[in-house]
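User:
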Amino acid sequence: MYDQNKLLSIGDSGKGGNDYLFGMSRNYKFHNPTGIYFVSFATLHWVDVFVREEYFKMLAESVEYCRKEKGMELFAYCFMPSHVHFIFRSKLGDPSGLLRDFKKYTSKELVNAIHQNPQESIKEWLLEMFQQAETHKKNSVNYQFWQHHNKPIELWSTSVIKQKQDYIHKNPVLSGFVTSPEDWKYSSARNLNGDHTVMDLDELGFFE
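Assistant: Predicted structure:
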């Protein structure tokens, strides 16, 4: 069950719940708190986790909650088997904190889902890939799900936004999964074709 309260309660300091590591880019920064950004982040070791519908849905539900409760404006997205692309903005002027909270929450929930999924045939291998060294806590194991890089790029013009949008939508095609961008279910390419069944996008006037 998707627990909205868990995501809402994630603190701005990032302290607590350290058994599920997350992270922001060490080389890139969100210099403009109200800017529109293109970001990409991948699972640790580029592991293909998102090959099951339930894991995709967890990402979509987390995004929807961030849009409704945490000030996220989403203009384009694509969920790939090992990574995620967003074009987004923080209405609260905290894109770094917003993305950090999203990654922290989904890290914990997805690792738990893998643990509890009786149909996950490669459960042990996945958990081993995400497992980190033991912490100072006795019998405690850390799991790092996402890599520590988001590489935010501020998008300052209509042409740049469209360029990144096209890049996002062509990802599944270039990877050989589909022949047309709109054929990939978890992509905003479908929204552009009038299909909003996965989730809605926010309006941005000069994005047309």
